[in-house]
Amino acid sequence: MKQKLVCIFFIFLLLCSVKGCAMPDYISDKDKLNGSTLTDNDNFDNFIVVGYSQVGSESDWRSTNTDSFKQALTPQNNYYLIYEDAQQKQENQLKSVRNFILQEVDYIVLDPVVETGWDTVLSEAKAAGIPVIIVDRQVVVEDEDLYTCWIGSNFKKQSIKAGKWLENYLKKKGRSDEKINIVTIQGIPDSTAQIGRTNGFKKILSKNKNWNMLEYQNGEFTQAKGQEVMEYYLDTYEDIDVVVSENDNMTFGALKAIEAAQKTCGPDGDIIIISFDAVHAALQFMLDGKINVDFECNPMLGPIVKENIERLEKGKAVKKKQYVDEKYFDSTMDLEKILSERTY
Ligand code: GYE
After folding, report:
1. How many angstroms is it from 285 CA to the middle of ligand 1?
2. Going by C-beta distance under 8 Å and a sequence separation of 6 or more, which residues neighbour residue 318?
3. Atom of ligand 1 nearest to the CA of 277
4. pLDDT tens-digit map of 115-174
5. pTM of this prediction?
6. CB burial class (10 A; 0-12, 13-18, 19+) of residue 60?
7. Ligand 1 proximity of 295 Cβ (cutoff 6 Å)
8. Whose CB has fewer CB within 10 Å in the chain, the N or C terminal residue?
9. Which residues pair with 244 in a beta bridge?
10. What domains sit in the chain, N to C, each tagged with a CATH number?
C-alpha cells in the first residue's frame, strides 16, 4: 500500500511539473481528509485507497451524495479517498478511471453520468485486478463481470409511484375524466435517473387516455436549465396542468419561471408539481405550498459502499444489485415534523 501512495505522490509531482497546476483538490483540501493530514510518519500500510469518480456537483442531491462518501471513507476509518468531479462529462470520468488504474488504487467507485460506453475502461480495470463498485446510476455493459456490484435507487419505481400518485390525486379532485396537459423536464439523456424516471411515468401515462404529454425537454438536472425549459413551456403552451420535473434542482428553476409568468402552482395553485429527490430545500418549498409531491432518492450511499468494501476485504461475496429504501412526501403530511427529523 505504501508503494501505491508513494506512486500517487510521484504522479502528482509529475502532473504539477507538466501542467504547472495547483495542487489537485484530493491532496490539498484538508476537509476531504476530514480535518486530518497525511505526514511522512503516518503508517499507510493498512489504508484502503479508493478512487471515486463522481458525476459532478449539479444538484443538492449530488452534494449530499458526495459528502456521504467523504464522511464514510476517511483516514480515521483507514481509507484514502481520491475524489474526482467529472462535471457531468463522460470523457472526464474515463480519464479519472484510467488515472485510478495507473495509481493502482484498491477500489474504484464510479457513478456513471450515462449508461453506455464503459466496456473498454472497465475491461482495463478488470485486467489490472481492481474491483469497480458502480453507484447511483448504472452501466450497460456486455459482460456484467466487469464490475463487482451496483448500489443505488430504483428510478423506474419512483416514477411509477409518481404516476399512480397523480391518478389518485386527480380522482380525489374529481378530475379523472378531464384532459390533463403534462410537460416533463428531463434529466441528462441516457442517465439511469432520466431513463427510469421517464419510462416509469410513461407506463402510467399510457393507461390514462385523457393525459396528454405535451413535450419532453432536457433540463440537464440543473436549476438554470430547468428554469429555461419551463420558461419555454410557459411561452409555448397556454394550458399546463402538470409539470413532471426529474429532479428537485430543475424544479427550483421551474418554480422561478412559473412565478415570473405570474402563474400559480402547488396544492392551491393552477399547476401540479411532481418532483424527484426530496432534498431539504424541496420539502421546504412543499411546506410553502409550491410543490405537490416529491419522490425520495436516497443519496446516503457512502456508508453502504464502505460496508461492501469491508465484506470484500474479508473475502466475502456481495450482492450484485443493491437497491436502497425510499419514500415519498406530499403536502398532506406533517412536513414540519418530517423536515425537523431529516438529515438531508
Ligand atoms: O436525482 C439528481 C442528480 O442520479 C439520482 O442526479 C441522481 C440524479 C439526482 O443530479 O439530482
Report:
1. 18
2. 148, 149, 308, 311, 312
3. 1
4. 999 999 999 999 999 999 999 999 999 999 999 999 999 999 999 999 999 999 999 999
5. 0.89
6. buried
7. no
8. N
9. 184, 274
10. 24-151+300-313 (3.40.50.2300), 155-297+329-341 (3.40.50.2300)
